[in-house]
Amino acid sequence: MTASVVLKFPVFSITEFRPLDRQIPKNHPSNSIKTYLYLKTPRFPRQLKARTTLMEAAQSGSSVNTSTNASMKLLFVEMGVGYDQHGQDITSAAMRACRDAISSNSIPAFRRGSIPGVASGQMKLQIKLGVPHSLQQSLDIQRVKSVFPYGEIVKFEVVDGGMICSSGVLIEEMGDENDDCYIVNAAVYVGY
C-alpha cells in the first residue's frame, strides 16, 4: 500500500510514492520513496501574436508602404555592439558596432550563386544604429557606411539607444576630454 504526494508547479509536477505498509523490511526495494517528474506544456491564457515588421511584410509580399524603404527579401539579421572608451568619438563606436555585427559571418551564397536568380551584386543591407540622442548629430554616417565591404545600403536608420557611461578613467594622452565611454548597438539586415 502506498500514499502519493503531488506538488504542482506551472511547468512541471512532482509525484512521490511513499510506502505505508510497515510490515515490509526497511531495506527492501519496495520500501523506498519513488519520485517522478512530469513536464507539462505551458498554457497561455490568450494567444500571443507577434508584430510583423516592415521587412517581414515586404518579404512575404504583403502590401507595404515602401516610400522610404527599398523592399528586399530578408535573409538574416546580424547584431553588434561597439564602444569608444577613450577620445569620445561616437563614429568610432558606431563603426565598431557594425564591424562586430558582420565580422563573425561569411555569406558565400551571394558569391557562389546559391540563391537562384540572385547575383552577388544584388545584396542589400539595411543598417539600424542605436545611438545616444545627444550624440546623433555628431555621427559621421559616411564613415560608418565605409565599414561594409559590399552590398547596397538601401536604408540607414539612427534611433535613440546605446549608452553613455563612465570608463572609470580619463587619459588625456588618448584624447579624452572626460571619462565618458560611448556605446552603440547595431542591427544589420541582409537580403536581396
Order of helices and strands: EEEHEHHEHEEE
Termini separation comes to 68 Å
Structural class, judged by helices and strands? alpha+beta
Q: Helix fraction?
A: 10-25%
Mean pLDDT over the residues = 78
Strand content: 25-35%
Over the alpha carbons, how many angstroms does the gyration radius reach?
Answer: 28 Å
Shape label: flat
Description:
There is one protein chain. By secondary structure, the chain is an alpha+beta fold. The protein is 16% helix and 34% strand. The strands form two sheets. Strands 4, 5, 6, 7 and 8 form a five-stranded mixed sheet that branches. It has a three-stranded antiparallel sheet with strand order 1-2-3, with no helix packed on it. The longest helix is centred in the middle third of the chain and has 13 residues. One of its GO terms (molecular function) is GTP binding. This is 50S ribosomal protein L34. It comes from Salix udensis. Keywords: GTP-binding, Nucleotide-binding.
Quick overview:
16% of the residues lie in helices and 34% in strands. The protein has 192 residues and is of the alpha+beta class. The model is unreliable at 61-68 (pLDDT under 50).
Please supply descriptive tags for the structure shown above:
three-stranded antiparallel sheet; 50S ribosomal protein L34
Secondary structure elements and pairings:
Elements: E1 2-8, E2 12-19, E3 34-39, H1 54-60, E4 74-84, H2 90-102, H3 108-112, E5 124-131, H4 141-145, E6 152-160, E7 163-166, E8 180-191
Parallel strand pairs: 5-6
Antiparallel strand pairs: 1-2, 2-3, 4-8, 5-8, 7-8
